[in-house]
Amino acid sequence: MPNKFHNLLFGSIWIALPLCLNPVAAQAESRGYVIGWLATASYYTGDVKMGCPDGRNGGVVEGRYGSLFGTTVHIALGLVLREPPVSIDEAVRRAARRTGLTDRLAEAAADVERSVASLRRDGLMVGECAVEYPLAGAWHGGLLLSGYIDLVVADSNRLNVIDFKTDAPPAGAVEETYPEYVRQVRAYGKLLADAGVPGARRLHCGLLFTGDGSIRWVGV
Fold it and tell me: In this structure, which topology does domain 22-218 adopt according to CATH?
């Protein structure tokens, strides 16, 4: 899956900044806020900072098997999508070496396999695509928000914004089970829309739950 989005957001007022990095948090703290992830900001209390919900970059949500498992699955998925010749088992091994995960490697591989199968089935393994695409922009109240979109896939008709989640798949409506994740992926979409990225294409935002491979599409 080649990355063809090289400079899609550059040349505008947007800048590429990684999610939850200190420079961004420092700017927010100077104004009384800390940005924990793209769709939320909380008042800085001096001892608690909201992290990325699924455990990356100092997150606070453990997910099904803990944050280390979630990070490993994210890295392995990125490897498989960026480098199609890499097998799922090899991607998980490489990711685990980076994260230090030593158990549940079979479960991690199963998560990646389900996710890839789901993306392929929904036609999201073709077209222009980007993995871990960085973006940033102004938000309500003068905040600067930044993040990485796990996967962006575009064709002539649609721009798909997908965030990977290793939490337990919701039994009911995702908006009720994980409202914070819905806000997160919608915020990704809004930032792209504000930058004019979709153009004439329809914008679709979804959460891919690696536990069952389901993609829960949410309204923009």
Answer: Lambda Exonuclease; Chain A (3.90.320)
3-state SS, one letter per residue, for the chain: CCECCCCCCCCCCCCCCCCCCHHHHHHHHCCCEEEEECCEEEECCCCCCCCCCCCCCCCCCCCCCCHHHHHHHHHHHHHHHHCCCCCHHHHHHHHHHHHCCCCCHHHHHHHHHHHHHHHHHCCCCCCEEEEEEEEEEECHHHCEEEEEEEEEEECCCEEEEEEEECCCCCCCCHHHHCHHHHHHHHHHHHHHHHCCCCCCCEEEEEEEECCCCEEEEECC
* pTM of structure: 0.76
- The pLDDT tens digits along the chain (220 residues) read 544 444 343 322 233 333 332 333 333 323 322 223 333 332 222 222 223 444 443 344 456 899 999 999 999 999 999 998 999 999 999 999 999 999 999 999 999 999 999 999 999 998 899 999 998 888 888 888 888 999 999 999 999 999 999 999 999 999 999 999 999 999 999 999 999 999 999 999 999 999 999 999 998 7
Task: Please choose, from the candidates 71, 35, 40, 38, the residue with its C-alpha nearest in 3D space to the C-alpha of residue 56.
Answer: 71
